[in-house]
Amino acid sequence: MEWEPDQATSDLIRHLALQNSLQYSGEGQAGSVISRIMGNRADLRQFGKFIAPLVAKAVAKANAFAASDGLDAITEILEREAPELLERKVQTRREGLPELPNLNGKKPVLRFAPNPNGPLSFGHSRGLVINGQYAKDLDGELILRFDDTDTTVKPPMMEAYDSIPIQQEWLCGFPAHRIVIASERMEHYHEHAKKMLDGGFGYVCTCSAEAFKVHRVAMTECPCRDNSVDENLERWSKMNDPEEYQPGDAVLRVKTDMTLKNPALRDWPAARIQTNPHPRVGNRWRVWPLLDFQSAVEDYLQGVTHIIRGKDLMDSTRKQTLLYAHFGWEYPETIYWGRVKVHEFGAFSTSQMKRDIAEGKFSGWEDPRLPTLTALSRRGIQPEALRAFWVELGLTQKDIAVPLSTLYSHNTKAIDIKAPRLAFVRNAFPVVLSGEFPRNGTIQSHSDAEMPPRKYSVDEGVWIEEEDSRKPIRLKDLCDIDADGNVESIDRSDKRPVVHWVAGGTPSKLTIASGQDLETVEGILEDNTHPVGTILQLERIGYAIVEEDGLLMVHD
Question: Side by side, which strands form the sheet with 542-547?
Fold first, then answer.
């Protein structure tokens, strides 16, 4: 089928490309333009494979024009030729996250799609929080999808299929509305692969990776591109036959345009042969979809309306919009965020963490030095704190760096209201008290009067920290003493330092995670009956959570 755009369609493509370049400050995105065209011109959907390269060229030309003549020049053209595209709608900003665009009266369907090659981490939490918050606020749906079709580079970990839904519910505050496992839906990807071949917008390429790279760089078509439909179907059959093609012998490609400006978009690969057994489905399948193809097909099948993800995946959007155009589908509205760097977490990757755990560098996925959600939960970081942290940062595309103290600030708001006060004396130093003072009594556990007070009973003396010893001090809520432990006043008499203390108490330890180091501090913990999991405010130290064998520092 041959097709040429009429003048109205050519003008539409050009004007939308200019508008998009203006909107994105000279960095227009072909995918957004294609989506608008396909969404507003149903009559053009059947010509998607022709329109996609035209849009790509128009956007590239618009971006080049923006760079050479400036954004004001684009504005002048649109004012003259398509002023309606410059009309700005007044949008009311939601509290927290910005308004979700192009809902058109529908409830949004969003997805979070991790690779289950390990547990979720701090980096994953942004995607969960943002997509989950929109689904909750707008009465939409959140799909938890396991993109687990890579059996070679990032093979799935079976326990992750159970742990990730638990972590998702913990963080979002509700379970996912749907759980989709890609490896169990392979029939759909194979079906659409054959549709590509039947439709003539896909082909099986037997060029080596090195040979195809030459074509990609030179912007030339490889010989396989001219295969007939029958030849491609025969090659596809060989890809699925253990007696025929082997890994690396053939790959399924999406026909795009080998002259596209972005090399990554030129006839990009959709599926390949993998012979490593999959932990869920074994050796049932030989040909596995690559992520951009699998994700695109699944987003369509699941009715995803909005994709919210990092701007590092813009190329994925561009690839997928070209595929959608071939199928005549409307691509979901796509929103991006920039990179957020938290210095204290460094550069952890799931694969590296897995290796470090295997080598004994870390005790497991819950090791408090790791940025996994299980480790953060163990450390007393509350899900509402993580949600507040990411909502506050919003959806800016700017790359930013934030200190971990920002998260701790949100966490303090979440835990302080219910954290009883308790004393833990490090480097304990005994002080024998002489004089009159209340030997039995109670001390406030919290500013909340409803929280039961702490009881104390002083026999001969108390424990204080060694750095507080041998000088006049005030024992908090008890009395003023001199350097030798003599009681000078029950009421506070001057501005001497106020220190915490323990009467009796139990030997304990406080574990502190600092970067990739673990520090253990020995001390005396005030007698208490708080169960494991209770978050305490240790006086003059910070927040800590009760564990079976001591205390774990949450943050100061």
Answer: 421-422, 535-538, 542-547, 550-555, 506-514, 517-525, 424-426
